[in-house]
Specification:
Number of helices of chain B: 0
Number of strands of chain A: 11
Order of helices and strands of chain A: EEEEEEEEEEE
Strand content of chain B: over 45%
Helix content of chain B: under 10%
Largest sheet of chain A: 7 strands, mixed
Helix content of chain A: under 10%
Shape of chain B: globular
Largest interface: A-B, 27 and 25 residues
Oligomer: heterodimer
Distance between the termini of chain A: 37 Å
Number of strands of chain B: 11
Distance between the termini of chain B: 41 Å
Radius of gyration of chain B: 14 Å
């Protein structure tokens, strides 16, 4: 079974530029998550999709971050314009929600450096 | 606000030692607790715990949940250099969101 795919793996941009990340979840997984992991911290949830609908985006900085999952499969996360503090690893995860429990499987992540 | 706290934040041991990593949580509508191992970038799944007092075991790793104390431990016996990684604990909280709140992780370094 193929895992969660993400691209690019690395990205270096200057502040105020735009950047986009792509994620393709495990086949059949209805739920997709984007996390931000700053060095030395645990992953922080940015946005959660159930199929193509947003379930939770309470921690997404909506003035500069946006995400979509138009067909309920792959997803893109965009930052426009980027700030220095956006330097982090952006992780995508997917899950097949069970009735009582749930395990999220992570992609390899994209390391973003904002100069 | 949901919170997960891990301790210690870092640990250095020698090969063959046994280590215990701690995780405490305060989340609304707790469903389960998960442990992940993060070596480079992607966290890889280790265990999911839902019931108190039932140990889950995989090789030299084991974990147990204490719902009364709102905590969990991860044990690694006979450590190897390949166990060097960040170990992340996450609590899965309620409603329909199945949201994970992560701790900061424990950086484990196993020296030969």
């Amino acid at each position: 079974e193929a895992g969660v795919a993400q691209s690019p793996r690395y990205k270096i941009i200057e502040k105020r530029q735009s950047v986009a990340f792509w994620c393709n979840p495990i086949s059949g997984h209805a739920t997709l998550y984007w996390y931000q992991q700053i060095l030395g911290q645990g992953p922080k949830l940015l946005i959660q999709f159930q199929n193509n609908g947003v379930v939770d985006d309470s921690q997404l900085p909506k003035d500069r971050f946006s995400a979509e999952r138009l067909k309920g499969v792959d997803s893109t996360l965009k930052i426009q314009p980027a700030k220095l503090e956006d330097s982090a690893v952006y992780l995508c995860a997917s899950s097949l929600i069970q009735i009582r429990t749930d395990t999220q499987y992570f992609g390899p992540g994209t390391r973003l450096t904002v100069l | 606000e949901d919170k997960v706290v891990q301790s210690p934040l870092s640990l250095v041991v020698h090969e063959g030692d046994t280590v215990t990593l701690n995780c405490s949580y305060e989340v609304t509508n707790f469903r389960s607790l998960l442990w992940y191992k993060q070596e480079k970038k992607a966290p890889t799944f280790l265990f999911m715990l839902t019931s108190s007092g039932i140990e889950k075991k995989s090789g030299r790793l084991s974990s147990i949940l204490d719902k009364k104390e709102l905590s969990s431990i991860l044990n690694i016996t006979a450590t190897q250099t390949g166990d060097s990684a960040i170990y992340l604990c996450a609590a899965n909280s309620g409603g329909s969101n199945y949201k994970l709140t992560f701790g900061k992780g424990t950086l484990l370094t196993v020296n030969p």
